[in-house]
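Before we proceed, please read the two lines closing this message. Let me know whether the structure tokens fit the sequence:

…
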Amino acid sequence: MPMNNIVAFNIAVAEIFGQCYREFPIRVTISKMDVGIGIKEAMGDDPDGYFDLSEIEYQIAEEAMEWLIQAGYLWCKNPGRPISFEGVTLTP
């Protein structure tokens, strides 16, 4: 079954918001790898222990995070980091 980007985006948003909500108001580090793994697992694709961050799931994880920051849903102390986003929290 081909990747559905909108479904993968929604999974990424749920993963990101979930991490932020569980720790609120403490800022968290969001890993592109962890969110990508969450997408893979939710889409029924078991990660095999080999992580290629150029795979579509990890690209969607990164773009979803960037979009949430640019749209004003999240604050981030270091947007645009390649592997993780640090100091992330929900906005009002």
